[in-house]
Design brief:
Blueprint: E1 9-16, H1 22-32, H2 53-58, E2 65-71, E3 74-80, H3 88-94, E4 100-106, H4 113-125, E5 129-134, H5 143-154, E6 158-165, E7 173-176, H6 187-197, H7 202-211, H8 216-228, E8 233-237, H9 246-256, H10 260-263, E9 279-287, E10 293-301, E11 303-305, E12 309-312, E13 318-320, E14 324-328, E15 331-334, E16 337-339, E17 343-347, E18 357-359, E19 377-383, H11 389-402, E20 407-410, E21 417-421, H12 424-438, E22 442-445, E23 452-455, E24 459-468, E25 475-485, E26 492-496, H13 508-521, E27 532-540, H14 548-565, E28 568-582, H15 586-595, E29 599-606, E30 609-617, H16 624-632, E31 637-647, H17 650-662, H18 664-668
Parallel strand pairs: 1-3, 1-4, 4-5, 5-8, 6-8, 26-27
Antiparallel strand pairs: 2-3, 6-7, 9-10, 9-18, 10-17, 11-16, 12-13, 12-18, 14-15, 14-17, 19-21, 19-22, 20-21, 23-28, 24-25, 25-27, 28-30, 28-31, 29-30
Helix pairs in contact: 6-8, 13-14
Length: about 675
């Protein structure tokens, strides 16, 4: 049923590329619908949508925002999503709260990568999608050129429904094509729309082919059916600063958008079945400065009310809902309950994150998550104040719950506290939020690359004797070892080949323990040693002075001596990269990979985009996202995964050892 007392809901996601005007359009719609008394402007930091301090500071959307209002007896919710690839994850979850989408495309710059990405996501979810071509009143823009680009990218179902009239540079007005237009050049566009919409109904198609006419009301009914079936993607020209075309788009969404009942019939919600019990999907979750967590939930079936018990299908925990709020940006108004079709904020559910399915405890329904970007960029962090370490861990866990593309870990090898995200900008935003919420001052530095050490030849019969006399009980242990390389990935083997009692049986594990301790410390550059076999072949035990510690020390020092004799080398991690870029940038990207000691394996192209598959040392990648952005004008992205370890070129080994010794975390430890 939707909002209490209203029969129809419309949940619309505004999607697109950064700078394409989603937030400006959102504010224009709110003003046109009578929700606000003046149009909020990003440049003046007065928008209802971008209300977080960091968003106001940077002048762009960093999180998805929910704006619910009533317009002519219809319950409407706009989901204003970030257009930046740095904050794509928020957009991917937000569109799962929508029943239809509006793709914003800037007439000045055309279709960008993130617009294509979000179009694909809307298609995957089966969302009816309209297109808003913004800034058509700017100089040097051409709406019809942008329309042609849209049709080439997304198919011939992309057809104009509101077009500019007059000079393309400064159109006089926006005309809608809901009825025949006799004047050129609009008549061919109305004819194209009509021919498209009658294809959804055989009888209408036959009648139209016979008469060449279609009654206005029949045309509108078929237009709505074609829109809901994604057979047509209507395009609206907009000059948002003047609000030209905004009312036409708003009225289209009011009259033609899917209702809750129509939306849940789609394939993406088949898991609901026929249940009438509560099922909700978490599209956003955020902690505030007061240690409270606010979660934004799309109610898919049943009702949600204060104090109600729900189960989080991910964690299996039964939670008690706090208050339920209607949302208009930062403004939260308490309501008694939310119905199917509503998107509301709830409190008091602490272990919740975007993508969670909340249900009545008697229901078992789990809705799918989107495929969101993997964290590819890392920064090592340390609290400036010694007592803030525990606060830092707590704050990082909060951020992980807020943002599924953010993660943190303690690196077992280096001891660094490492945060990971999709870009430098993404991580810097996370750190600003952390500082604002929890007042923690941090130091940041590049994370250490997890190099390893190994040998390339054998060292045979290497001995070391540890002897210590201090006036009392002494220490004595003599060992003789062989050291040889193992196949990559075999790690470590210790072989006991002592014949007779040269070393007492009880002290042989001590040699192994000492060797492994030195392997963990490293020999040539302070990195762990791997892929070696140590064979204990001889030694000597003193009847009084031999002790566990003596043979540990002897094992350590014999290993160190043998390691230096066996042509040691450093190993570096090599990652596999899949780099997605515009076809026009592929040459520059391949050239850049070559400068990073990368090896291109293959590449393929499709629809103006290329994907380059390559291998490159991890040490060459920490700043790659920023430089890829510069190379591609913000259009490039990549994913990577560990592939293997290989020997570092000899010319770099000395510099790496020096860098390790001077790293701030090495000094801290």
């Amino acid at each position: 049923m939707g909002r209490k007392g209203l029969q129809v809901t419309r949940n619309i996601a505004l999607i697109g590329h950064e700078g394409s005007g989603e937030t400006t359009l959102t504010e224009a719609i709110l003003y046109t619908a009578g929700v606000t008394a003046r149009v909020g402007r990003v440049s003046e930091k007065t928008t209802l949508s971008d209300f977080e301090p960091e968003e106001k500071e940077q002048g762009k959307s960093l999180r998805a925002s929910v704006l619910s209002f009533e317009y002519e007896k219809i319950a409407m919710t706009l989901l204003d999503t970030p257009g930046s690839q740095d904050f794509l994850t928020d957009a991917l979850f937000a569109v799962r709260g929508a029943d239809a989408a509006v793709l914003c495309v800037d007439a000045r710059g055309g279709i960008k990568v993130n617009a294509r990405r979000m179009w694909a996501e809307a298609s995957k979810l089966g969302l009816p999608t309209a297109v808003a071509v913004t800034h058509v009143d700017e100089l040097d823009t051409d709406f019809f050129r942008t329309l042609e680009e849209l049709q080439n990218a997304f198919g011939q179902g992309v057809l104009p429904l509101a077009v500019p009239i007059g000079d393309n540079g400064r159109p006089d007005a926006i005309a809608t094509l809901f009825e025949p237009k006799g004047e050129e050049p609009l008549a061919p566009y109305f004819e194209a729309i009509t021919e498209r919409v009658v294809e959804v109904d055989d009888e209408a198609l036959e009648a139209y082919l016979e008469s060449g006419k279609l009654e206005p009301e029949r045309f509108k009914a078929l237009l709505r059916e074609a829109f809901l079936k994604r057979h047509i993607f209507p395009v609206f020209a907009l000059a948002t600063p003047k609000r030209a075309g905004v009312k036409e788009l708003l009225e289209f969404l009011r009259d033609f958008g899917p209702s809750q009942e129509e939306a849940i019939r789609g394939e993406r919600l088949q898991a609901l079945g026929d249940t009438q019990a509560f099922v909700g999907y978490v599209i956003k979750s955020v902690a505030d400065e007061f240690l409270a967590r606010i979660s934004y939930v799309r109610v898919l079936s049943g009702t949600l009310s204060q104090g109600m018990q729900v189960i989080n299908q991910r964690s299996g925990k039964i939670e008690k809902v706090g208050a339920v709020y209607r949302v208009l940006g930062a403004d939260l108004k308490p309501v008694e309950e939310a119905e199917a079709g509503d998107i509301v904020a709830v409190t008091k559910i602490e272990d919740v994150r975007p993508g969670d399915t909340l249900t009545d405890p008697k229901v078992e329904v789990v809705l799918p998550e989107p495929e969101f970007p993997k964290p590819m960029v890392s920064i090592a962090v340390r609290a400036r104040t010694h007592g803030d370490e525990q606060k830092l861990v707590f704050a990082m866990r909060e951020l992980e719950h807020d943002d599924r593309a953010f993660s943190f870990r303690m690196d077992a090898q280096t001891g660094d506290f490492v945060i990971q995200g999709v870009s430098d900008l993404h991580l810097q935003h996370a750190l600003r939020v952390l500082k604002r919420r929890r007042k923690i001052e941090l130091e940041t530095f590049p994370p250490r690359i997890p190099y390893k050490e190994t040998v390339t030849k054998a060292a045979i019969g290497v001995e070391y004797t540890h002897k210590k006399q201090t006036g009392g009980a002494g220490q004595y242990g003599k060992v003789v070892i062989n050291l040889e390389p193992l196949e990559r990935g075999k790690s470590y083997e210790f072989v006991d080949k002592i014949v007779g009692g040269a070393i007492d049986q009880s002290f042989r594990p001590s040699v192994d323990k000492g060797v492994q301790a030195k392997m963990q410390e490293g020999v040539i550059a302070g990195y762990p040693v791997v892929d070696v076999r140590v064979t204990l072949v001889d030694g000597k035990t003193h009847p009084v002075d031999s002790k566990d510690i003596a043979f540990q020390i002897a094992g350590r020092e014999a290993f160190k001596r043998a390691f230096l004799m066996a042509d040691p080398v450093l190993l570096e991690p090599v990652v596999k990269l899949d780099v997605a870029v515009p076809e026009t940038a592929i040459g520059a990207v391949i050239g850049d990979l070559n400068t990073r000691r990368g090896r291109v394996i293959s590449s393929e192209s499709s629809d103006g985009m290329a994907v380059v598959h390559a291998l490159a040392p991890l040490a060459e990648i920490p700043r790659y996202q920023a430089e890829l952005t510069a190379l591609t004008g913000g259009e490039g992205s990549f994913v990577m995964a560990f592939d293997h370890y290989e020997v570092v070129p000899a010319s770099l080994q000395k510099a790496i050892a020096s860098e390790h010794a001077n790293h701030p975390q090495a000094a801290a430890h």
